[in-house]
Amino acid sequence: MKVLIVDDSSKIRYRLMSLLSSLDNVDVVGFSGEEDIEEINSVNPDFIVLDINLVGKSGVEILKSVKRTMPDVQVAMLTNHFDSFYSRLCKNCGADYFFDKSMDFDLLATLIKEKEKMH
After folding, report:
1. What total number of domains does the chain contain?
2. pLDDT tens for each residue of the chain, 119 residues long
3. Is the terminal CB of the chain with fewer CB neighbours within 10 Å at N or C?
4. ∠ CA(95), CA(45), CA(70), 5° rounding?
5. Which residues have CB under 8 Å from 40's CB, separation 6+?
6. Is this model's pTM higher than 0.85 or not?
7. Domain ranges, residue 67
8. Cα(76)–Cα(69) distance, rounded to whole angstroms?
């Protein structure tokens, strides 16, 4: 299973990459969010972890593009903007999951582990 992490914080990106790459049969790629949709598509991910706020870009706009070009790819938003406004916005734009960046790393890892079992 290929997981793409898109987060402009190198600390968060490397923490997630380390956590998820320790899972069996999970290949993790990390992007800073500066990449365009073609680069994201070229990874051919099975699952994307996406931040809402990226330097110079909106994770919500990336989410919309991903869902247009790769509608079957599941996307989990991982954000510090963990509130009902952003949750609804992201779900309406196609997000499959919505996690709080300050405390849901383990929940995200558990979800991906379960997804890999089904993959």
Report:
1. 1
2. 999 999 999 999 999 999 999 999 999 999 998 888 899 989 999 999 999 999 888 999 999 999 999 999 999 999 988 889 999 999 999 999 999 998 898 899 999 999 888 87
3. C
4. 55
5. 4, 6, 31, 48, 62, 65, 66
6. yes
7. 2-118
8. 16
